[in-house]
Write a structure and sequence with these properties.
By secondary structure, the protein is an alpha/beta fold. The protein is built from 13 helices and 18 strands. The protein binds iron/sulfur cluster (SF4).
Length: 511
């Protein structure tokens, strides 16, 4: 399997005159694995490389420098990262590539091992040292141009940590002692609006990372050990970046972070995410604004009221709940239970009618009994989520859960995962049947990857990449569609997760 190289918003043509000139414009191919947070890191590194004179290419054969930005969230992600590094190493032996760089979460965890065990790797770049990508690629940072003083200059820099982060640090939350070869220093880096960035997302849509790191104590999770303490970007820096993206034609912005609902707590804001959404929603021409990764007990009345009041904030909430059994949630160090969650979901649906809800669960956490699992199934039947992801528990060294007794056999974990997905499949199919005849604004992303006979897009109820799709099989009154534009569509056919629509008209807003 060949991983696709990222297609940034840049010309991918290769300058053949300079192709063998070490000092001038090396061609760089980029593979980004894992979540959108990693994708933004890739976009920042591509922006830094581009500004320093590198040429980005989507052709792995043409790349002189190959970068793999890795994920090491769970075992399957680590395996995919290692497989991709080995695949790219092959190009170094047989093709034009002469430098292989490994970046991202895998580096934070196995820095020394990567270098020791994969000699083809020339350099590693951790999540907290993105600017090192230049030296790793054999480039120098360009001398900064003389600029007008920016009104935001004083607002950049690393904000102070939250008291929660300090407390968790004293409790050993961020310890990397279990990982041989990991750097002892936690990442502190966080980009800002002055950092160059090349977008790799599909037309008209972009992510903005508003915070990095996480101070929560979830016992199954090693992300805080990889990404460091929670830290928010400055309010004005996020606004400046959003305005700049919209000025470049972006019409959908998705705010991300490990926990977006903590946004601004380290800056002294109360309800920081609600304030930020309110400000961003006022940007003219921003058609859709959404955020991912809400923490359940941080969904405040003000946040919901802001979502309800602003028509361009998507009626969409992604709130990973992880489980619904109180006993399991306690061991996960997350707290709450099914009843508390149902009350929260009720409140969300009352304040923001019609909202689409997405969540994810972990099945097979150590000590999860059949009763715990059935409680989770009952909860899923009652909550009726629009979108649901289920992960089997992955035993991660360095997490608190690693040493817990009562590990669930792998076959049971997989059986529970399938069973829960089956329950959701029926819920989703029945819910989608009610979509027939519904009219929606659809952001068209282009021809379907499955067949050129269909086009595909998303509504405000679908986040990029993770939810079902809207397939368009009838252009209605229009001769052609354009990727990155909005169209008014009517749903004509439904499936388990995806729906089919026909175009009624071009929507008012155009990218
Ligand atoms: S909130 Fe998310 S990122 Fe933070 S520790 Fe829990 S699962 Fe990990």
């Amino acid at each position: 399997m060949t991983e696709a190289l990222l297609d940034g918003a840049f010309p991918s043509a290769v300058d053949s005159e300079n192709i063998n000139d070490d000092t001038a414009r090396p061609t760089v191919g980029f593979v980004s694995l894992g979540c959108p947070k990693n994708l933004v890191d890739s976009e920042v590194m591509m922006g830094l490389l581009d500004r320093a004179g590198a040429q980005m290419t989507t052709d792995v054969e043409a790349a002189e420098v190959l970068v793999v930005n890795t994920c090491s969230f769970i075992d399957a992600a680590k395996q995919e990262s290692v497989d991709t590094i080995l695949e790219m190493a092959q190009h170094k032996r047989t093709g034009r590539a002469r430098r292989l760089i490994v970046a991202g979460c895998l580096v934070e965890r196995y820095r020394d091992e990567i270098r020791k065990n994969i000699p083809e790797v020339d350099a590693v770049v951790g999540t907290g040292e993105l600017e090192q990508i230049l030296a790793a690629a054999g480039l120098h940072a360009p001398r900064p141009a003389v600029q007008e003083p920016s009104p935001f200059t004083i607002l950049t820099g690393t904000p102070a940590a939250r008291p929660e982060g300090e407390l968790r640090e004293s409790q050993g939350r961020f310890s990397r002692n279990a990982w041989d070869g990991a750097d002892v220093h936690l990442p502190q880096y966080l980009y800002d609006h002055t950092t160059p960035r090349l977008l790799a997302t599909k037309t008209a849509s972009a992510y903005i990372k508003i915070a990095e790191g996480c101070d929560h104590p979830c016992s199954f999770c090693v992300i805080p050990n990889l990404r460091g303490k929670f830290r928010s970007r400055r309010f004005e820096s996020v606004v400046a970046e959003a305005e700049s993206l919209v000025a470049q034609g972006v019409r959908e912005i998705t705010l991300i972070g490990q926990d977006t609902t903590c946004y601004g707590e380290d800056l002294g804001f109360k309800d920081g995410l609600a304030q930020l959404l309110d400000r961003l929603a006022a940007i003219p021409d921003l058609k859709w604004l959404r955020f991912l990764y809400a923490y359940p007990n941080k969904i405040t009345g003000r946040l919901l009221e802001t979502m309800a009041r602003r028509p361009n904030i998507c009626r969409y909430l992604d709130v990973p709940l992880q489980h619904a059994s109180g006993a399991v949630l306690k061991k996960m160090k997350r707290g709450a239970n099914a009843e508390i969650f149902l009350n929260t979901l009720d409140k969300v649906r009352t304040v923001v009618p019609g909202i689409a809800l997405r969540t994810s669960f972990i099945v097979g956490f150590p000590g999860e009994t059949q009763e715990d699992f059935e409680a989770l199934c009952d909860f899923v039947r009652g909550a009726k989520f629009d979108w649901l992801g289920v992960f089997g528990y992955s035993n991660e060294e360095g997490s608190r859960a690693f040493d817990l007794d009562g590990k669930v056999p792998a076959r049971t974990v997989e059986r529970r995962r399938r069973e829960l997905m089956k329950i959701q499949q029926r819920i989703s199919r029945e819910a989608k049947e009610n979509w027939i005849g519904r009219e929606l604004d659809v952001l068209v992303e282009g021809e379907s990857e499955e067949t050129p006979l269909l086009w595909e897009g998303r509504s405000e109820f679908h986040a990029p990449e993770i939810d079902g799709k809207i397939y368009i099989n009838d252009f209605g009154p229009l001769e052609e569609l354009h990727p990155g534009r909005f169209y008014r569509c009517q749903i004509t056919e439904t499936h388990d997760y995806d729906v089919v629509a026909r175009v009624i008209a071009a929507s008012g807003e155009q990218a």
